[in-house]
């Protein structure tokens, strides 16, 4: 009898063993540190798990001659809560992705076409840089493209140049912390849309 009750309770436990496979983002609601609230499963469609945004090159007519097309939760709601995301990088010759950090994720870079010199500076300021064949300055003579994946659905992106020059942090403070001449700081603020 005890065994039967145990078995029954086990079956009951198994039948209730629910794993939440997904949490398609409700982008109409505010994002929280744990991601977006989920839309109700009854409203989830196969297309919520499909993203076609990485199939075409991004527009590289800009100051960095490069395009990053993101497949983060905001563009690809099916990723919400799944702990990964993706992006496409397009780099014509001379294109650069400025130094940046992704506060919420680690990153893998996979070169599709061309040559890309990519790397990072460690927290100990050691430099790890390498030219990758068919990953970010395009060192070749032809356009390069790469896919990147992140270990978070919301990797975040903080671009060093913007952090320093695209806001209203006063020129004298930027100058004091970067050791750059104030005239140069003002010039860079002008180029990147900063004030002060
Ligand atoms: C690319 O961006 C530039 C600068 O914003 C714009 O002038 C141009 O029309 C865009 N090209 C395409 C194909 O959207």
From TrEMBL:
It is found in: Secreted, Extracellular space, Apoplast. It comes from the Eukaryota. CDD domains: cupin_OxOx. Mn(2+) binds at residues 100, 102, 107. Disulfide bonds join 23-38. SUPFAM superfamilies: RmlC-like cupins. One of its GO terms (molecular function) is metal ion binding. One of its GO terms (cellular component) is extracellular matrix. SMART domains: Cupin_1. Its main location: secreted. Keywords: Apoplast, Disulfide bond, Glycoprotein, Manganese, Metal-binding, Secreted, Signal. Oxalate binds at residues 102, 107. Residues 52-186 form the Cupin type-1 domain. Pfam families: Cupin_1. Residues 1-17 form the signal peptide. Belongs to the germin family. This is Germin-like protein 1.
């Amino acid at each position: 009898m005890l065994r039967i009750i145990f078995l029954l309770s086990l079956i009951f436990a198994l039948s209730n063993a629910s794993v939440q496979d997904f949490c398609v983002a409700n982008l109409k609601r505010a994002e929280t540190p744990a991601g977006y609230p989920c839309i109700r499963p009854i409203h989830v469609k196969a297309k919520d798990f499909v993203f076609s945004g990485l199939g075409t090159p991004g527009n590289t007519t800009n100051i960095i001659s490069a395009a990053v097309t993101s497949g983060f939760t905001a563009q690809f709601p099916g990723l919400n809560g799944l702990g990964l995301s993706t992006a496409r990088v397009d780099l014509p010759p001379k294109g650069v992705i400025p130094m940046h950090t992704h506060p919420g994720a680690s990153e893998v870079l996979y070169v599709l076409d061309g040559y890309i010199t990519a790397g990072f500076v460690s927290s100990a300021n050691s430099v790890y840089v390498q030219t990758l064949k068919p990953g970010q300055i395009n060192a070749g003579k032809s356009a390069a493209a790469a896919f990147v994946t992140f270990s978070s659905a919301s990797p975040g992106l903080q671009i060093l140049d913007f952090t320093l020059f695209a806001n209203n942090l006063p020129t004298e403070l930027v100058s004091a912390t970067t050791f750059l001449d104030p005239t140069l700081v003002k010039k860079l603020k002008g180029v990147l849309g900063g004030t002060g």
